[in-house]
Amino acid sequence: MEAVNVTDYLAHGYVRDGSVSYQAELQQAIDAAEEGRMVLFPPMRYRLDENGLRVHSHLTLWMYGATFQLARDCAADGQAFLGQGIADVRFLGGEIVGRNDLWPLGANIRGIYLTGSTRDVRICDMHIHAITSNAVGVFGKADDPAHDIWITDCVLEDGCNWYGDYLSQRPGPEPGSVRQDQGLIALYHVQDFVVRGCRLERSRSDATHFYRCRRGEFVDNKVYGAQMGGYFLETCAEVTASDNIVRDNGSRGVTIERGSQSCILQGNLVASSGREGLWAPDCTGLVITGNIFDRNGRKPNGNQPGQIWNANITIDDARHDPTHSPTQDYLVANNILYTAADQVAAIRIDAGVSRDIIVRGNLLRGENRRILVEGDSPEALSGNDIQQTP
Q1: Is the pLDDT at 215 greater than 90, yes or no?
Q2: Which residues contact 353 (CB under 8 A, 6 or more apart)?
Q3: 235 vs 373: CA distance, rounded Å
């Protein structure tokens, strides 16, 4: 079956530089494609407004060499590609370019926006940048989660609306932006997902946000320079993160919180985070092993100038946890931690949560080689190469 070539729907003498919008003709080509067909976007610049292009099920969008330029005068929420309840769709190649230097604050424009009963989607080899919401946002529902979503070998950078650190002069999101707009990759209620081989850089909020997701892999990614956090799990289960480089992010390098269960953090480098390298409150069944945590906690974390109490790893009960989950059954083993003098400890275990928290076989180096246990279970520590301060 032959591909549908979108340029067959353009008028004779069409221009290739994006100076003219052919958005209606592109939508006509997509709508005309039968199930199972490939829609071919030949290399050229395609101009889009914030309404974007709507994709239906059982299509392959072949976009290698194509650039989708969102218009400079976009002023409302939107996206480049929209899918609602789609299944069996491939987004292959292509570049989506925004103008977050010109768009008004609170205009939240995504690269790819998928909602509803979404199944079997592959997003591969794409470059998405300069937008004001997620590069890729997939939003299932609690009673109808999305399934089988793979995002691989993509470059996602300079996205999301601004989210300021809570001690900054501009804390929180921009007016008009909501938490679903945070994260270059945002997956809500998604099961059986893979994010692999991607570079996520310079998010203006979080680099990732996985919310109420299950059975996922975050593997072999590079997460650099987010304004806020790097890798962020909230109320997730059975998610593994391995072989990632997470560095120079403005808040926590890794957050696993709010009732997450049976999650693994293994073989990652987490370095130079603004807050902790790992903050892991209110979870059950975490395995944290074989990682390198290198001099995280470079920002003040209090109201007094120079007041820093970040550890490389903090395990505690968070205030105002909406899930009211216990903090229990953690294995923190065989990690290497490099610390700075102004950190409160290499690892801090807060009062009341040290039961069933096993910390063993870790190698601590740097200027603060201690594990600070504020509870009453120092027997949870064994075989660590440290200066211990119970």
Answers
A1: yes
A2: 315, 316, 317, 327, 328, 375
A3: 25
Mean pLDDT, residues 259-272 taken together: 98
Residue-wise pLDDT for 179-188, tens only, equals 999 999 999 9
- Over residues 172-207, the pLDDT tens digits come to 888 888 999 999 999 999 999 999 999 999 999 999
Report residue 131 as tokens: 């937008």
Residue at token pair 């007041």: 307
Q: DSSP alpha helices (H): ranges in the chain?
A: 23-32
> Quick check: 249 and 225 in contact, CB under 8 A?
yes
> Is the predicted pLDDT of residue 389 greater than 60, yes or no?
no
Q: Are 364 and 339 in contact (CB under 8 A)?
A: yes
How far is 311 from 307, CA to CA, in rounded Å?
13
d(CA 233, CA 331): 18
Domain boundaries, the chain: 255-299+311-390
Going by C-alpha positions, the residue among 156, 158, 160 that lies closest to residue 179 is: 160
Calculate mean pLDDT across residues 224-231: 97
Rounded CA-CA distance 256/240 in Å is 11
Share of the chain above pLDDT 90, in %: 80
Residue type, 60: T
Please state, in angstroms and rounded to a whole number, the distance separating the CA atoms of residues 72 and 99.
Answer: 6
Contacts of 15-20 with C-beta under 8 Å, sequence gap 24+, read 16/44, 16/45, 17/44, 17/45, 18/44, 18/45, 18/46, 18/47, 18/67, 18/69, 19/47, 20/47
pTM summary value:
0.95
